[in-house]
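YM 10:42: ABC transporter ATP-binding protein/permease sequence, as discussed on the call
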Amino acid sequence: MNYFKKILRFAKPYRRYGILNIFFNILYALFSALSYAALIPMLNVLFDKTKQINEPPTYEGIGKLKDYFEGYMNYQVTQFSGEDPMKGLLLAVGLILFLFLFKNIFNYMAMYFITFLRNGVLKDIRNKMYQKIVDLPISYFSEKKKGDVIARITSDVLEIQHSFLSILELIVREPLTILFTIIVMFIISVKLTIFVFIFIPIAGMIISRIGKSLKKKSDRVQKEQGEFLSIVEETLGGLRVIKAFNAESKFYGTFKNSTSRFFRFSNSLLNRQNLSSPTSEFLGIVVFGVLLWFGGRMVLLEGSLDAASFISYMGLAFNILTPAKAISKASYAVKKGNSAAERVLEILESENPIRDVDGAKEKTNFNSGVELKNISFKYENDYVLKDFNLKVDKGKTVALVGQSGSGKSTVANLVTRFYDVNKGEILIDGTNIKNITKKSLRGLMGLVTQDSILFNDSVKNNIALGKENASMDEIMEAAKVANAHDFIMDLPKCYETNIGDSGNKLSGGQKQRLSIARAVLKNPPIMILDEATSALDTESERLVQDALENMMKNRTSIVIAHRLSTIQNADSIVVMSKGEIVEQGTHEELMKSAKSYKKLVEMQSFSS
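YM 10:58: structure's back
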């Protein structure tokens, strides 16, 4: 029930639809009970039991309500039909049609309004989840499979709609239908109704025992769905490698094993769920059979109940079965929905450790430089950076070089505050970046990564990502700085050309130049280049390197370099090894010292 309360808070903006749903459900429940009670005068006419009454009866209290109702209907039939019984039958049939018509109109209106609430909650949960996914730190998703996250925002949210939000329809309508029906049943026969209530709790206990393991079984199904969605996502992302290494059968085997488990878990869950309907129906018929026997005795032997009232009573008893079955199914749905809600709320309630502190300042200018003071950082157990110090003055270019695993990219992740340092502090103009809002901090920075991260959209929209409402002239100017304008103009629709998923319609060099154009358009004072040319061929590297040099003019730049030939003009080169600085200086100074840097340069010269 805790999960239900947490999900229900998303219904607050749509409460007016909920109120209207409740209003029409009350009318539906009332007319549902009355429509069966209205069978009594019709049956009395058919059985020729209608007494000729020429004056309306007087109301003598709740205990005589049945007699008053029957007398009133007999009076109306007498007034309408006179000596012709067919006229009386016509009146009784018309009354039943009227009641059933409005019962169904109210049912439709109730469902009409609840639709807005259900779909609104669905929309808001998905929006909140997406907002949370974007807000959570990168470290959160290094521990999660993408397919599992996708499963939570799609199928799990849909399961919440089918389970929890379905209860909103039942929570008023079905109990009220049962309540109003029972009131009418009591009016017709107190003795028979008390007898019925001996059996209802027994049936309810048997039904509830069937669904105890549903949450556990549902949880297995949803986890396995996340598993095979992850396999699909990885397959689509690595299709070239899979084909190149003839690994199709291996991946197919993994996927097949996952879907086989999903098949078994789903069968187990659905078979348990399907058991609820026939069980509740059979138990209902048992109650119905016992009711026929007991009520038949009252009509045939005791004479304490007339036949018309008994037939109407049976209709009312049957009217209880449908909402009772719906409530029974709803209890199963809640158990199934609990698992989905738990997985959705796990993301929604995840705390973001990288958040703005109270009183964090907006910083829009950059005056003196970036400084890393005695910082230490670890992703898990071992420190990647240890007591690391680095100062980058405004307008200078500092290059970080070293073997893989030396901590170069970690510096970029920490400066952009994708991760927070474990010890020490990072300062911009003497202010700790933890005291600057994340949005304004990242607004000061442009990032070009080794992997060109582009989106399935037009060239124009990919370049304009970092600057809303950028003019076409600004976009074209940025593309020219990035040496991208010429190849863009050769594309079928120029700047309006869609570049495909992850920019797959473009070459590596073209993708990287679009990434650079995006950073140029943003026009940040601090530029971070994370091995921006390492994945390119020689010709593309030259074009991209020219673009980078154009971009870095008059900017403060931190360059993480794989190819050392690209950073020889840097103001300072920092050589890193195992999270520490082993050398620092200009290219010429480091070559003269003939230590680590010179060895790296010679190794690359030899390998090339």
